[in-house]
């Protein structure tokens, strides 16, 4: 394999940026070659390989990688917004709350990442932290017996305080 076929992510990113910046440049490949400090033939070969890969992907003959689990800035703001909307507002189940309490018992206050990872796998660390905040506010409230029942009233000692469908 030739050296130009072993480009790292940084070289790929520079190449992609140069492609965008030189889109209407009549000497596009010469400009890119100069920018990357690479021979013109290498740049043209890499471009042809990229076009070929795109054609394979668009024709369905080559699968794409699923990046759903990664939040490394590659998703557009619109995509991130849609993902957030899908997760927003889903109430906690009694089972999730019990798992939260077990995690709280093991890891204590503040280690929401571990609680999320080991106990409440259906929720992110941020969601667990938010739930904990509401839970502790509810526990600290005076006269909470006068308030309507909430999932935050459940404890590990007696998880039958709230009649919530799992």
TrEMBL record:
GO cellular component, one term: nucleus
Localization: Nucleus
Transmembrane parts of this sequence: none
Residues annotated as domain HTH myb-type: 84-140
Alphabetized InterPro entries for the sequence: Homeodomain-like_sf (IPR009057), Myb_dom (IPR017930), Myb_dom_plants (IPR006447), Plant_Stress_Dev_TF (IPR052245), SANT/Myb (IPR001005), SANT_dom (IPR017884)
Any one GO molecular-function label of the UniProt entry: DNA binding
UniProt-listed GO biological process terms: regulation of DNA-templated transcription
Keyword Nucleotidyltransferase: no
Family matches, as Pfam families: Myb_DNA-binding
Keywords recorded for this protein, A-Z: DNA-binding, Nucleus, Transcription, Transcription regulation
Chain ranges of the Myb-like domain: 84-136
Record-annotated SANT domain positions: 87-140
Chain positions covered by the region annotation Disordered: 67-91, 139-166
Chain intervals with Acidic residues compositional bias: 156-166
NCBIfam families xrefs: myb_SHAQKYF
PANTHER family per UniProt: BNAA05G28230D PROTEIN, TRANSCRIPTION FACTOR KUA1
UniProt protein name: Uncharacterized protein
């Amino acid at each position: 394999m030739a050296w130009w076929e072993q480009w790292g992510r940084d070289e790929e990113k520079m190449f992609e940026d140069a492609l965008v910046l030189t889109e209407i440049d009549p000497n596009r490949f010469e400009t890119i070659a100069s920018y990357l400090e690479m021979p013109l033939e290498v740049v043209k070969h890499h471009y042809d390989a990229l076009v070929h890969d795109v054609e394979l992907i668009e024709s369905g003959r080559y699968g794409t990688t699923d990046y759903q689990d990664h939040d490394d800035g590659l998703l557009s703001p619109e995509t991130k917004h849609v993902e957030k909307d899908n997760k927003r507002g889903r109430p906690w189940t009694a089972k999730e709350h019990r798992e939260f309490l077990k995690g709280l018992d093991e890891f204590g206050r503040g280690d929401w990442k571990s609680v999320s990872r080991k106990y409440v796998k259906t929720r992110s660390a941020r969601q667990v932290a938010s739930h904990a905040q509401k839970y502790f506010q509810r526990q600290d409230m005076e006269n909470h017996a006068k308030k309507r029942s909430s999932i935050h009233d459940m404890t590990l000692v007696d998880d039958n305080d709230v009649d919530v469908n799992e």
